[in-house]
Write a structure and sequence with these properties.
Layout lengths: L8 E2 L1 H13 L1 H10 L7 H8 L4 H11 L14 H16 L7 E7 L5 E6 L4 E7 L4 H4 L9 E6 H9 L25 E3 L5 E7 L3
Parallel strand pairs: 2-4
Antiparallel strand pairs: 1-2, 3-4, 5-7, 6-7
Length: 206
């Protein structure tokens, strides 16, 4: 969340750090979340920090993610702490059992709502943070966390993403527009073999 969005989905340092807490200090985080008031301004950030979450990222959440006024990213959604508290507790509950499952987290910008969605599969629990788009200046910041994320769109959507200022999208038909996977530093569009469908490589892990 702190690194910005590629336009649709990301993990970033905020959720990468959250996954570490959920993996190594899950019981402590559950107890901390149970203690706090979900309606309090800094309750979730405090619970995370008390469970070993990095203090500097917790402070970022206090200053930008949870506030109900600027510079908060989502000031029109007053119950963000309560939603995040209940969503985290539900994901932890769903991951319990033998074996205990890992929890994989993603931030998705889609629609005009703020909600968490938890799903359980045989290998892991997924926790999705759905929010409206963050401020336009944040959209332009690349994530510093390697992510293997692919967005499949048609040509129109690819250029719509480019115009929105998320990431530069290169035309594979233009000179120098295509580079083999693993050799690029910026996202590219590569032909998938399906008429009218292109693959936008948002970010590829090394």
């Amino acid at each position: 969340m702190s690194d910005g969005m590629p336009g649709v989905i990301s993990k970033g340092k905020v959720l990468a750090a959250l996954e570490e807490v959920l993996l190594h200090n899950r019981a402590c985080l559950r107890e901390q979340l149970r203690k706090v008031d979900g309606g309090a301004a800094d309750s979730v950030a405090d619970a995370l920090e008390n469970a070993g979450y990095p203090s500097r990222i917790a402070q970022h959440l206090r200053e930008h993610f949870f506030p109900n006024q600027p510079p908060g990213y989502f000031p029109s959604f007053p119950n963000k702490n309560g939603i995040c508290r209940e969503g985290l507790l539900k994901a932890i509950e769903m991951a319990e059992g033998k074996p205990q499952l890992p929890i994989d987290c993603y931030w998705i910008c889609s629609g005009d709502y703020f909600q968490l969605v938890a799903t359980r599969g045989p290998q892991q629990v997924n926790l999705f943070f759905f929010t409206p788009p963050p401020p336009a200046n944040l959209m332009q910041l690349p994530s510093s966390v390697p992510e293997n994320i692919h967005l499949i769109v048609d040509r129109y959507d690819a250029y719509r993403i480019q115009r929105a200022g998320a990431y530069p999208v290169l035309d594979p038909c233009a000179p120098g527009g295509y580079r083999p996977p693993g050799t690029h530093e910026q996202p590219i569009i590569s032909d998938t073999g399906t008429d009218g469908v292109k693959e936008v490589v948002v970010r590829r892990a090394p």
